[in-house]
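Cont'd.
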Amino acid sequence: MNLTLTFFGQTITFLVFVWFCWKYIWPPLMTAMQERQKAIGEGLAAAERAEKDLELAQERATDQLRDAKDEAAKILEQARQQANQMIENAKNEARAEGERLREAQQAEIEQEVNRAKEALRGQVAVLAVAGAEKILGASVDQNRHSELLDKLAAEL
Amino acid sequence: MATGTETSADYIKHHLTNLVFGQHPDGTWGLAHSAEEAAAMGFMSINVDSMFWSILLGVVFVLVFRSAAKRATSGVPGGLQNFVEMIVDFVDDNVRSIFTHQNSMIAPMALTIFVWVFLMNLMDLVPVDWIPMAASAVGIHYMKVVPTTDPNITLGMAFAVFLLVIYFSIAKKGLGGFLGELLFHPFPKWAAPVNLILEGVTLLAKPISLGLRLFGNLYAGEMIFILIALMYSGGLIMGIFGGVLQWGWAVFHVLIITLQAGIFAVLSVVYLAQAHDVESEH
């Protein structure tokens, strides 16, 4: 229990260990810990930023999707209208064409009828003359009676 | 353990005797063969066991922490690094809350004190007979394994802290400032002698109380372990009772040794913080 050289031995030992710890143990550990702290802080900040970015991107994507849907609906609507228009036009055209064709046909028929009538008239005059000749037993002067015959033909 | 030929008093005395190497009164150097011989050596002797265990445990601290420091990465820490960093962080936090000056040596000093003193105290939890019996088996008759139960060790460390206090006081305030603090407080200049006595006592009380506190607590703890160990020679019932007691005291002691290591470290930091304070309130 008496004070001996151990006292100073321990003092020197103490100072040596403290010095060693100060020079070779504390600095690398502290550096590593602080670096990690910084890295973790940066990582957390980056994660937060990424989360925000993601949120923004999602919002943008939603917007774009909605726009696209609207656009598609608009295009569809236009197409439908166009189609209807085209069908309508086609119908009208067809109807007009039909009408036109019918009218042409009608005109042709009428012409044909007239032509037939003309022909018929001519022939009726001849027939009438022939008939009359037979009935009268005398020849009918074509020239004298031509006026009458024409009138008759016109009446037919 | 006490054998039949040994009395309880002998057993206790044996456990409390250091292995001393020194100069015998007749001028020759050698190991002391009894407490009386050791006492006769006076100052020129060294407690080999205390120094051995103290340095061994210091080396254990240095090797473990140095190996962690060498492999320290800022990446994912491994098991050892985690453990070491936890202690370092704990010490760093405590030092930061106490010591506000700029000095890169204080925190490493606190770490060294905390871990080293803890390891030395921890030797108290090794059953009191194991190492001494192993030592006597190889011919070493005295072996005190807990360095902090040796006042030379605790006061030696306190003295080192005291030297640092003086050094930083003078470095920060100048020799004049340091002496001024001793001479001109708390009374005005005309009472310088009184001031010197008051301040001198305050200054010296710090290392002495620091060293004796640790020594006292650990010496008492060790003594109780020795007394409990005595019960093992008192028959089966006493032996079982002693075992229970030893276990209980060991559990309690885990708290004490950690606390004492922490107190030694924190007080050292406090004293050094005071050394850095350039007093302005007086």
